[in-house]
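C-alpha cells in:
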C-alpha cells in the first residue's frame, strides 16, 4: 500500500520566539537530526562539485545560519545570503548577507547562481510549491534536502522520540507526514526535464535529496 498523500499541520517551532527555551532545545535537536541524516554534508558536497564554481548562493529558511556559515567555509570565494523570517543570528560571519522576510514573496529580487534549503520546503502546500518553483527557474543550481514521507522514517522518529524535546516529538513526525516521495518535489516545483537535469535520491534514514542543474 503506498504512503498517504501529504498532510500539513502547523509545527510548534514555527510559532515560538527564538529565545523560548523550547525553541532553543528544538534547534539543538535539529542539529542532531542534521548530523544523523547528513543533509548539510550532502549539500556542501553538491555545491563544491559544481563547475564552474558558484559565485552567489542563497539559502532558504536559513534559521540559525549554521549552513550558511558552513557554505562560506567550504566555498570562501562565494557570496552567501541567508533568507528567513527571523532576525540575523548573533555571531554570524560579517561576510554573510542576511535578509529578513518572507522569501516566498520576494525571491525573484535576489539574484544568485544556486538556491539551497534543508528541511524547509515541506512547510509549503502543493500550490505554494508550484508558485515558489516559478521563482526558482532563474537559478543555475537547486539543492534541497527534505523529509522522506515513508513508514520507516516515521517508525524511526517514534523510536528516537525519547531523546528529543517536546517540540521535536511533535514536529518530527509532522514534518515526515508533510514530506515527499520520490518524484514529487521536482514535479510540484515544476522542474521539467527539458530545462533541468534532475538527480534525486532517498536515504532510508528519512531524507529525500534533490539536485537540479539547469541545462
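Residues out:
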Amino acid at each position: 500500500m503506498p504512503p498517504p498523500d501529504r498532510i500539513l499541520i502547523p509545527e510548534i517551532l514555527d510559532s515560538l520566539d527564538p529565545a523560548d527555551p523550547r525553541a532553543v532545545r528544538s534547534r539543538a535537536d535539529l542539529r542532531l537530526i542534521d548530523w544523523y541524516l547528513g543533509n548539510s554534508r550532502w549539500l556542501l558536497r553538491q555545491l563544491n562539485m559544481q563547475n564552474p564554481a558558484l559565485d552567489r548562493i542563497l539559502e532558504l529558511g536559513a534559521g540559525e545560519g549554521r549552513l550558511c556559515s558552513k557554505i562560506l567555509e567550504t566555498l570562501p570565494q562565494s557570496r552567501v545570503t541567508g533568507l528567513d523570517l527571523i532576525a540575523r543570528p548573533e555571531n554570524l560571519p560579517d561576510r554573510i548577507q542576511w535578509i529578513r522576510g518572507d522569501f516566498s514573496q520576494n525571491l525573484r529580487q535576489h539574484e544568485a547562481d544556486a538556491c539551497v534549503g534543508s528541511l524547509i520546503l515541506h512547510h509549503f502546500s502543493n500550490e505554494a510549491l508550484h508558485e515558489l518553483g516559478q521563482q526558482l527557474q532563474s537559478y543555475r543550481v537547486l539543492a534541497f534536502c527534505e523529509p522522506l514521507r515513508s513508514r520507516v522514517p516515521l517508525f524511526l522518529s517514534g523510536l528516537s522520540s525519547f531523546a528529543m524535546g517536546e517540540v521535536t516529538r511533535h514536529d518530527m513526525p509532522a514534518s515526515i507526514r508533510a514530506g515527499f516521495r520520490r518524484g514529487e518535489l521536482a514535479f510540484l516545483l515544476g522542474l521539467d526535464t527539458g530545462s533541468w537535469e534532475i538527480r534525486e535520491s532517498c536515504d532510508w534514514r528519512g531524507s529525500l535529496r534533490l539536485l537540479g542543474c539547469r541545462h
